[in-house]
Design goal:
The protein is α+β, with helices and mostly antiparallel strands. The chain is built from 12 helices and 6 strands. The protein folds into 2 domains: 206 residues, Multidrug efflux transporter AcrB transmembrane fold (Up-down Bundle); 71 residues, 2-Layer Sandwich (Alpha-Beta Plaits). The strands form 2 sheets. Strands 3-4-2-5 form a 4-stranded antiparallel β-sheet. Strands 1-6 form a two-stranded parallel sheet.
Length: 357
């Protein structure tokens, strides 16, 4: 199986096998647009569930207990939005809206009596709405600063604002889809969730930069040849990095899925659940966007440049006239970079000799 995967990767890298990802970019734009529209609809209808760190409230943690039913019953008597969940294997957490100090003390006494534990085994935390609003404001500021820095660094690194634009579109796509899934699941958005969101943006950006690096390498001598168009060379880059993207994603998703499904759902580690869900959804959709969103968007932007349009017309005209030498796959796709048996590959493919002294 590994041998077959290696052969498949080699054929993708050489151009022997080509998937028309860039040419079919309108199809991927429709899919991504539908996903983003669905995420917006979920956010408008259901909305996100912010934790008390953002909106303020009161939180109680009962030590050496596993059953949240008692805490849920007591909390519901004081607040309609009370939620009790297990934390790990030996704690129960009760979260509710803002309460007074006297009311919080009364709830501690009720929890102590209900669970039959000492009040000292129940920790309570109160967060005011002003503090929660400040935390939410800082989280949004951090996200905006991150996106601004990304756009500047990408533009300077690639010396092309279109690549920065493609990367930002992919990042926005990943963030919106992940937040939509978060809203659909009803999970609380906590500081851990925000950390997860920023982490997936970094992961998606890393994957996109790898693909863009290959695009830049393949198109470095674009105008000195008239065999392939910019879109075809960019599509080759996507195909060449396809196996790497899949392998990296699988390796990254395995431990995250273990944390999410085993640590969170089976063992009840609530804190891990917040960050692991964001990581799991974000990494999966980040792999998709680096392949089917970032590069197609970049190619769509560059295809409108007069110089690129002129070069593309020259390549197509040369093919029509039969003055250029290209091969085609069984489905009619141009094999970019594929060797053609019996054909001269050009002087660049010949070994270079060292100069004699």
């Amino acid at each position: 199986m590994l041998g077959n995967l290696g052969q498949w990767g080699n054929k993708l890298h050489s151009g022997e096998i080509t998937y028309p990802i860039v040419r079919q970019r309108k199809r991927w734009f429709i899919v991504s647009g539908a996903l983003m529209a669905l995420s917006v609809l979920i956010l408008l209808v259901k909305g996100i569930n912010p934790g008390i760190d953002f909106v303020g409230g009161t939180q109680f943690v009962i030590q050496d207990q596993t059953d949240p039913a008692i805490a849920q019953e007591i909390g519901s008597e004081h607040s309609a939005d009370a939620v009790a969940i297990p934390l790990g294997t030996d704690r129960v957490q009760l979260s509710m809206g803002e309460t007074s100090i006297e009311e919080a003390r009364g709830i501690v006494d009720e929890l102590s009596e209900g669970y039959g534990v000492d009040p000292g085994d129940i920790a309570s935390t109160q967060i005011g709405p002003t503090w929660g609003a400040e935390v939410g404001k800082k989280a949004i500021q951090g996200l905006i600063v991150f996106l601004l820095l990304v756009s500047v660094v990408m533009t300077l690194y690639f010396r092309a604002w279109r690549m920065a634009a493609g990367a930002l579109v992919a990042l926005f796509h990943d963030l919106l889809f992940t937040v939509g899934i978060y809203a659909l699941s009803g999970f609380e958005v906590t500081p851990g969730s925000v950390i997860g969101f920023l982490t997936i943006l970094g992961y998606s950006l890393y994957d996109t930069v790898v693909v863009f690096d290959k695009v830049r390498e393949n198109t470095s001598n674009l105008f000195s040849q008239h065999r392939f168009t910019y879109a075809e060379l960019a599509n080759l880059a996507v195909n060449q990095t396809l196996v790497r993207s899949i392998n990296t994603s699988v390796v990254a998703l395995l431990p995250v899925s273990a944390i999410l499904f085993i640590g969170s759902f089976l063992l009840g580690a609530g804190t891990l659940k917040d960050i692991s869900l964001a990581l799991f959804i974000g990494m999966a959709v980040g792999t998709y966007s680096s392949i089917f969103v970032a590069t197609p968007v970049e190619v769509a932007l560059r295809s409108s440049e007069p110089r690129i349009k002129e070069h593309t017309a020259q390549v197509l005209a040369a093919r029509e006239a039969g003055t250029t030498d290209v091969s085609y796959s069984e489905d009619g796709e141009v094999r970019v970079g594929a060797l053609q048996p019996g054909h001269h590959q050009g002087t660049q493919s010949q070994p270079r000799r060292k100069g004699r002294r």
